[in-house]
Design brief:
The protein is built from 3 helices and no strands. The protein is elongated.
Length: 82
């Protein structure tokens, strides 16, 4: 999986967790509870994003969900070799 794909998947997971957390607030009367529910969803997604970027948490995540934090690997030039 490419790095942009991993980042998109992580964002999707974080957003889904935020929405699931805010679902009880959004399930009632939407006019009365809409804004606090959305605020909870955004806060949880932001907190998960911040947490998942920590190096200790990166090591705990499965390989397919980890994101490179260093510079991209350099390609070696072949210098005319076949």
């Amino acid at each position: 999986m490419t790095d942009p794909g991993r980042r998109a998947l992580r964002t999707l997971v974080q957003t889904l967790f935020g929405l699931v957390t805010a679902l009880p607030l959004l399930a009632g009367d939407p006019a009365a509870h809409g804004l606090p529910g959305v605020a909870v969803a955004v806060a949880v997604a932001g907190a998960l994003s911040r947490l998942m970027s920590a190096p200790a948490v990166q090591r705990l995540l499965p390989e397919w969900l980890r994101v490179r934090t260093g510079p991209p690997p350099r390609k070696e030039a072949d210098h005319g070799r076949l």
